[in-house]
Amino acid sequence: MDKKIYQFLEKVRSQLDQNLDYESRRYLDKNILERRLDGLHLDEQTLNKVKQLNEKISDLCVEFSKNCNEESTKFSFTKQQLDGVNENFLNSLPKDNDGNYVVSLKYPVYYPIMKECRVPETRRKLNIAFDSRCLKENTQIFEQVLQLRKELAGLLGFGNFSEYKLKLLCAENPQNVDSFLNKLAEKMRILQKREVELLLEYKQKECDELKIPFDGKINPSDLKYYLNMREKKEFKVDHTKLQEYFPLDVVIDGTFKIYQTLLSLKFEEVLDAPKYHEELKLYKVTDSETNKIIGYFYTDLHPRDGKYGHAAVFGLREGTKLGDQIPVCIMVCNFTKPTADQPSLLTHDEVETFFHEFGHVMHQICTKTNYYKFAGTAVETDFVEAPSQMLENWCWEKESLKMLSAHYKDGSSIDEQLVEDLIKSKNSANGHFNMRQILFAKMDQYFHTTNEKICTADIYKQYCKEYMLQELEADGLNMNASFEHLVGGYESQYYSYLWSEVYSEDMFQTRFKKEGILNPKTGLDYRKCILEPGGSLDAKQMVTNFLGREPNEEAFLKAKGADF
């Protein structure tokens, strides 16, 4: 942060106003506002305090993430303790010296067990451990970060940290976010209560069959299990069978074909590429019409100790027209590794994750901006998920699902009935899923708007009861100790996942659903109107250009099953 550069930018902006193109004016305006948000308009003493606070916050966030990446809790369970879990999945787990299965809390291990294990005590034990990850190390760090952010916002002249963070975003202020979340929560609560009644029926029936007490509640460790049971029994969705049709290589191949068709691109693997681990692959991206190379992307798809534990895309080099520089990025995921007996098989959720993250890759690669500042996904945070969220719809359409699937043993096509049952189940857990997102968004906003001293574990307990209608299953649990979003760029902005869906659903329903999900003309419009501009235009303007009108929330509420 250099005050002289800030002052120079202000001077240049006023002197060159009439001679600048739109993107250059935007570049200067954004830089000037961001430098003000950095505190460069303040006196030297206050500015030094701002710098010190930012350095402290940054160091603490790095430490928080390091602790999450190094989390390595493991349990040993007998086969009886994992009763109901997919045999193929069990065979992929390592075993201890006694022949018991070693279970970690990594996503590809934890979630399948929580969905399928019939033993309540096993699920309860894992759920408690999951919400205890990094509890001792990170709770204090996170609460210290919240306090420092509050101080920072005050020095910069804001009432709270959320006011400060939302200054550059579509939502503009915390009041708009709160209003949006409250309106959605009101509708989602109706769906959630209906779901609870149905899940309790399933639970009571199973408790009677197993001759175990029925407590009349859907506990946190019950939720995924009974949602999965309902999908199987009511919608006939067999996720174990479904998974056999989603070997990772087939999903990759199908995803590539869809994106290449839709966006008029060609992908080609680069052999002998430089890489930091042997599992990485590098691909070259070429424009189909011009045969010009427009970018490169890496994939890193399986878990390793010390590796980033979620799914994300990271820019390695930004693309710019002025510098004639093509972009390079990497897609990092954590899908189950192949075994000697079978390839890596993805759940449908993981297929959706792959397709979503690859949407971010395309956002990075297709960029055509003059300034790296606006390249790729450098858009408003409450819009950045919209392009990828829109593309998740391809994982729920018959035509594209067939391209993404083939049985891992014989390459046979996915059963038509399986696909139909899956599509019918799409909104079966909308109430719970969206209330969970609202819980996280509300908690995030509370942390960054309140002036009270915060105990994050108490707030988590309170909000679980209020939004998920659940009591935690042990004292002192705190998922915030491993909630990397709130230290990794989404602080005060977790609402963005829901906010951006307003745009994503409008784009899909208005154009692709009507004109064809593999329509190259619509795809090219999407590439030119949404992906290529990056952050060089306001998000709302880009969506308006693509739709031919201003966006609205009708398609969003319809997609949620909440258009009532």
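(ticket continues) Second input and output from the same batch:
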Amino acid sequence: MTRKPLLLVRKQEHCSDETSRYTAVPIFDTETPIKPAAKPSRSEAPLRHMSLLDLVFFGIGTTIGSGVFVLAGVVAHNYAGPSASISYLIAGCVAALNGLPYAELSAAFPLDGSTYSYAYITLGEVFAVMASLCQTLEYGGASAAVARSWGSKFVDWIQEGREQSNPLPTGLEKFLQPGYDINPMGAIIALLCTLLLLMGVKESKMATNVVSFSKVSLIVFMIVAGFLLASGVFPNSEATPASFSNLRPFVPPEFGAAGIIDGSSILFFAFLGFDQICNLSGEAKNPVKDVPRAVVGVILIDGVIYMLAALALTAMVPYTSIDVVSAFPRAFGVNGVEWAEKMTAIGELVTLPLVVLTGIQSQTRLFFAMSKDKLVPKFFGKLTFSDSRTCCCVGEKKEDTIGNLSANVQFCGAVIVILACFVPFQYIESLISAGALFLFSLTDVCLLMIRYHCPSENFLGNVNEVDDSASIFSVATVREQLSLGRLLILLNVFPFLSGVCFAFIPIEAVKYSLAGVFALLTLCVTIYIHRYCPESRSTRFALEGDGYGIGKARFRTPLVPYLPALGIFANWFMLANIGWQGIVMLLIYLLLGVAMYGGFCSGRSLTSEYESNDGSYNSMLPGRISPTDTLSVGSPLQEALLPGGEWENEANSLKRDLSEIETSNTVRFA
């Protein structure tokens, strides 16, 4: 249950003393200069190579896919009609509630691992393990599910339009559909994505950018063409259903407001993937600036595209006639634009595998971060370099300076290929959804942990007599941590109880009454945190030599604690409404994962090794220096620990020396 000290974060191999990428400084410090960073060695993480545009294209590649090609038709036909655009708007607002905390945390801790790293620093090792389990569902599990979906779509596209007189060869048909829920094409597309990642980081990044741009271009074409068909700009001799009159009534009476809300709960998962951008913070050129911008930008781009796509679809075809399997291609087909129907169907097949590619890449970066903490084997963090490689653009041979996690990619790719081929995912879709919602709630809690500390409660003990490594749920924990931990427990329990009452109580009056009571209790806890829990000074990480200067404000989530509390409420409420099967499967999955961690990893992590070394951080420092000594440029870790360039009073303990970064007097992470 111990938290990772920030000192240890920068002590790890990929940001060690000799090659530190970060300098931690107080947020209001405008005087400490940035020292030039030493040249990274080949034992580090992949070099920073992703620009803001690369991060945005990566985010678009992870998010936009089935949200347009599949879910738009399902929600418009079954839940909301033309008001599906409002469902997208509501879902986008809920996604933003979670995206803004991700943006702030990514600026505060520009590290690999996303929520795993945030939870390790703010909540502790057990919560970090739970976060990694949910991230594995979202990255690896969802990638395998999308690969299977692509395989089924590819087979349907091959067989479409073939008559009995022109069937597929027997051997080919048997290969494509062997039965027993085996999906060979899903395995093939997952294998191709793995091979592309093995080619190199630059090659996979270029492919991501090109396919993401192509995907956005295709969807923009679908939107513009749909509106033009509905406006009658292209006259057609045959009667076509496209007309703006299809948008009336905008809210069909058979669906009403309840249908819009139900549709938004489904469309929320069309925004999943923006958090994977944070997983690449370790490879961003300027993560403190670019990662928050990319997260917010991707959510905005997705929301605009989704809303316009829903309006265009319901304008082309009456919502009662929309094909829920292939909405846009069939919409163009019934309007007599066969070439657009074929182009849309082929474009979906070409661009959808990008979700698989980015999912595998995100999974490898998660395992890379865990390997540095010794929670998974070391080979997940091993880099391979190609001394001479041919540039795909000009044919020149250049040295590989970025590196690639080849063994990591091979392992993750092989597992996802097997899952995509043999495992039917219709039984665990709710598990993946529940895991993503739990992950988002955990991230919101991490934000509150670094933004607030609790009011003084003298009866709980003296703040200076507490072990810094204690859990937030330990009675021995400092009074601020203990009290804040209790408040955050209530902030998560009340929304879940509200959702359970709404989902499972059959009596309407009782259902709405209890759901409302627990919602009010959630609001009361939030108001208490805002009024009685002082806001902490935060710790900012500034990159050395990458253009981010001391004194520039980083991104901060507005309306804290109300906005993250609202996100927590929405997440737990939707999780409770997923169904008892998803809740039970998530509980069993997390319990098994934590049990395996307790049996095989507990006490062996990097944090545990440092804490077991005489119970102090002395071994982590190359040597104590006096206040009059001059700092070495080659020791940025010491510079990070010495605000203003000097040690605190020599008579104080070492923990008091590190107070500007870790302890509760100045920087509250709990």
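Agent notes: The first helix runs from residue 6 to 11. The chain has a mean pLDDT of 77. Closing as not reproducible unless the customer responds.
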